[in-house]
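chain below, 352 aa
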Amino acid sequence: MFLFCQKNVTSHPMKNFDFNKIKSLLSKPKKIVIVPHRNPDGDAMGSTLGLYHFLLKLNHEVVVISPNEFPDFLNWLPASEKVIIYEKQKVDATKIINEAELIFTLDFNALHRVGEMEITLQSADCTFVMIDHHQKPDDYAEFTYSDTDFGSTCEMVYNFIEFLEQTSLIDKTIGTCLYTGILTDSGSFRYPKTTGRTHRIVAEFIDLGVENTNIPNLLFDNNSYNRLQLLGRALQNMKVLEKYHTSYISLSQAELDEFQHVKGDTEGIVNYGLTIKGIVFTAIFIENKEENIIKISFRSQGDFDVNQFARDHFSGGGHINAAGGKSDLSLQETINKFEELITQNINLNETN
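prediction:
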């Protein structure tokens, strides 16, 4: 494993990178695969497609393979129509992975995050590069750029390009992809890891012609009637545990079906729980009958570590203020477990 730090580029060292070697690897055309995590969000798709367009400019043969489908509100991203969906094209995807000389994994740091695609990646005989900002990375990659100081993987991809001394190749297309991930993972620039440098990078993108006034509309204001009805039901289902500064939302499979739920419809709903005065911890529990699990998202404000909470109790993880998890119990049993944990949590009991 290697450590590399280049001065006057960014204050953050790129950990476990031998840049002479990575530059050498990228100096000649290669077959490259880029992979986001399962159920990819704006940062996952923005970073993979941003890197995709960059590597094409270096004359590589590049394919983005997503473990499963991404939400419709991201299907306008440049070259999103070229993304191969592993669940739908397993034979083709497996062949491409087996022939790859280099595989980039973006916005995740453990191979189980790609679901059933994990076995295929584990059998790949090539060099892996990880770029990610989540805690406690696994060690599957020969090159690991892992730094929790960053609010998005897209900002890290910008740094990666900068360390390669290739920022002159960044154009409106690459900037559009990277801007999307920075915007979504920063909560529209509201989250604590949004820095002055984040805004300076975004300013560069805007100067390149990135449509910063239109992209938020494409991401957040392109709702279907059914999605708004589902949001209304979710808010009706919200419970507040005022004594413990906690709220939560639940959605059953029957409720999802009632409003003809499609992938992406529940994106961002969990954040409403933190808008209530005095709330520092919130969650959403979503029943998924097909996978026979309850999918969970956690959000917090301040010092309450939802990453550790998710790891300890719900087979999950993420960031200090944003994490995910799952439960094999029923929806009601999962909620009961959550409430019991909340009443026992000293940090929440002592929150003012």
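Residues 291 and 328 are 10 Å apart (CA to CA). The first strand starts at residue 3 and ends at 4.
thats it, cya
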